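[audit] Reproducing an earlier prediction to check determinism. Same input, same settings, fresh worker. If the tokens differ from the archived copy the diff job will pick it up downstream; this log only records the rerun itself.
[audit] input (348 residues):
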Amino acid sequence: MSASAAPSSNTPRKFTLASRASDLAKIQTNLVQDALRAAHPDTGFETAFMSTGGDKNQSQALYLLGGKALWTKELEVALVAGDVDMLVHSFKDVPTELPPGCEIAGVLRREDPVDCLIVKKGKEWKKLEDLPDGSVVGTSSVRRVAQLKRRFPGLVFKDVRGNLNTRMAKLDAPDGPFDAIVLARAGMVRLGWGPRITSDLGPPTLLHAVSQGALAIETRADDTAARVLCESITHWQTLWSCRAERACLRVLEGGCSVPVGVHTELREKDGEKGGVLVITGCVTSLDGAKHVEHTIQREVNSVEQAESVGKDLAKVLIETGAREILDDIRVDREKKIKLSQTAEATTS
């Protein structure tokens, strides 16, 4: 019987949570499972793990591989087929447009969404400003590279792929090229690497990725039982903030390979659901030469109002120069993809 098949009248339904097979994804799935079990001790939950396209291709730069569906497509096929009931994602990896029949039903309380600097073991540097010119900093994110090039033009940024453990091994390798790497703080903390964090990289130095630090639970849109379970463990403040950020990204047509940064603060009302949403967004050219940034502060009393703020932020960014930057980036990516395809054809 598939996970979504209707159980017999005397057999309670067991829900299957699925995610990628990386160590971090498994830890995150277990966090969601623990929250569900604590809220619903009489309901059964189990886990399943699988590799996605992003896991299988560890050689090409993310910039050339396309959008975020790279991390979710195979999982969503299993969800729609009824083989599993809930998908646990790093929310930042979820496309802003979901496949038909799928929805985000729950969001857990967000970890600190900032990025962080980790220097090679044995080095005494404490922050990016300490690194000498020519130092090599590893990251697979064009968002990070674009923003950091503006402030640290003397540093060299080099792509680094692999799961977090692999990236840490590449950093610490004595003969490796990296002096430091930049990663999301949330992943470091969840994997127990917190003590290796050298310093946080927050605004104004670096605005984080949309929905970074949050865990999202995706379900079938017609699975009312799964939705009710997920809503019971949802942290509404995180949901509202992430929905605002994702609305901004959706209007900008951004993705994994577009340098869109955000920073959001929700100042809650005392004893009420709502508050003042303060959201900053930026778009930066790949060389760091062009940068557009804007902040909107507005009272919100619903998730729909929060989304509206995110959309308005994107419109301001577009009107003040973001469209030209994004158009240039698309042209650059298409050119590099063609060159990569030509090189592969030549060597095959």
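[audit] rerun output stored. Observation attached for the diff report: The mean pLDDT is 90.
[audit] end
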